[in-house]
């Protein structure tokens, strides 16, 4: 493949990004997303009594991991992976047809994402000390909210890149453009139905609410809105590809 072919852009299916640019945006958003997810989990775990909670999907999956696998950092990545596969299957039904490239992309996304989740979980757990003071608690609360914002910004970047998506964010994108006329906030709220079910199952198995708190409420109320804001404020020249 010559340099001209590599650099070529195309308007087919609404794509105007080169492969290189698409991959760069994707890798950046993948790292931001994984780090943000784990940041909400670890800051919540480090505060006693726990009141922060995690981002909405993260809270449900972390709660399930704690109920079934005693909160293993290693298994957390596997829980994220398995849930992702199930949501990828749900997406096929919602979009009304089977797109094997998108389906494989959903599953492929989960492999590096799950590895990064386990990596950041181990790293942040070691780096961040237990909170035993008001100032540390305030700092962790800010970090928790930053983690939620990081997730939302990452979603904005790779939804616009539209190379491969996390199944949960592909779910949101399907809902956003097929059912909610482009509204990121409404689509985000609708996409929270599956993690709500997962969270209820986890609580039935183990009545533990340490993964739920003000951070979870913050994510529920504002994550979709931050994603919409990110579309305009973060890499504003990056437009939705293939939509």
From TrEMBL:
Q: Does the keyword Aminoacyl-tRNA synthetase apply?
A: no
Against InterPro entries, the record matches this protein to:
YczE/YyaS-like (IPR038750)
Q: Which UniProt keywords apply?
A: Membrane, Transmembrane, Transmembrane helix
* Pfam families per UniProt: DUF6198
Residue ranges spanning the membrane: these are: 21-42, 75-94, 106-125, 137-158, 187-206
The organism's place on the tree of life at top rank: Bacteria
Q: Is the Membrane keyword given for this protein?
A: yes
What name is this protein filed under? Fructose permease
According to its UniProt entry, this protein's organism is: Leuconostoc citreum
């Amino acid at each position: 493949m010559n340099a001209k072919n590599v650099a070529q852009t195309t308007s087919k299916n609404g794509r105007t990004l080169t492969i290189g640019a698409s991959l760069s945006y994707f890798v950046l958003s993948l790292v931001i997303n994984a780090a943000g997810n784990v940041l909400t989990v670890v800051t919540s775990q480090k505060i006693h009594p726990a009141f922060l909670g995690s981002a909405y999907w993260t809270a449900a999956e972390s709660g399930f991991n704690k109920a079934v696998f005693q909160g293993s950092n290693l298994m957390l990545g596997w829980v994220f992976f398995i849930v992702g596969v199930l949501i990828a299957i749900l997406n096929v039904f919602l979009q009304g047809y089977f797109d094997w490239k998108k389906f494989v992309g959903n599953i492929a996304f989960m492999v590096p994402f799950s590895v990064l989740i386990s990596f950041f979980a181990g790293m942040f757990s070691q780096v961040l000390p237990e909170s035993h003071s008001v100032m540390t608690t305030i700092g962790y609360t800010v970090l928790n909210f930053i983690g939620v914002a990081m997730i939302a910004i990452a979603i904005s970047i790779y939804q616009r890149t539209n190379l491969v998506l996390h199944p949960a964010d592909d779910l949101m994108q399907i809902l956003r453009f097929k059912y909610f006329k482009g509204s990121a906030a409404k689509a985000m709220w609708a996409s929270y139905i599956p993690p709500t079910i997962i969270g209820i199952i986890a609580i039935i198995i183990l009545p533990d609410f340490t993964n739920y708190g003000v951070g979870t409420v913050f994510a529920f109320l504002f994550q979709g809105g931050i994603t919409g804001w990110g579309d305009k404020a973060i890499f504003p020249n990056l437009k939705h590809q293939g939509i």
